[in-house]
Specification:
Number of domains: 1
Low-confidence stretches: none
CATH superfamily: START domain
Helix content: 25-40%
Radius of gyration: 14 Å
Largest sheet: 7 strands, antiparallel
Distance between the termini: 33 Å
Number of strands: 7
Length: 134
């Protein structure tokens, strides 16, 4: 498992909403400024599917990040399968905000440090987005 973490200076209800709302996901779900998420869908229940269309802004490439929720505990925990991999996101209230921890199975095409850096960059964008909403 690879783990990325961030503490977001916002209440857990706001953090959860931004993490699970399609309208918010398209605002923050990118690892770099030259990528963006053009659409997102969320069926926030166990067995429900989610999908985010991630594309390079120059149109050179894109992919769908999609999976199925295996656990949904509002404002506490999400778990999901994506392909043959698994991930878990936990939301913990801490002084001054919410600690978000994402743990995911790595894939085999790219080095683990590259995967960690990419997921951390997305989580950092998430943190900036949520904090800018206050």
């Amino acid at each position: 498992m690879i783990v990325v973490e961030a503490t977001v200076n916002a209440p857990v209800a706001q953090v959860w909403s931004a993490y699970t709302s399609p309208e918010a996901i398209v605002q923050w779900n990118a690892a770099s400024d030259d990528w963006h998420t053009t659409r997102a869908t969320v069926d926030l229940q166990v067995g429900g599917a989610f999908s985010s269309r991630m594309e390079a802004k120059d149109g050179s490439m894109g992919f769908d990040f999609e999976g199925v929720y295996t656990a949904v505990e509002p404002e506490r925990r999400l778990a999901y399968d994506f392909g043959d991999r698994k991930a878990e996101v936990t939301f913990t209230e801490v002084e001054g905000g919410t600690h978000v921890r994402v743990a995911f199975d790595p894939e085999t095409m790219h080095p683990e440090d590259m995967q960690r850096d990419g997921w951390q960059a997305i989580l950092n964008n998430f943190k900036r987005y949520v904090e800018s909403q206050n």
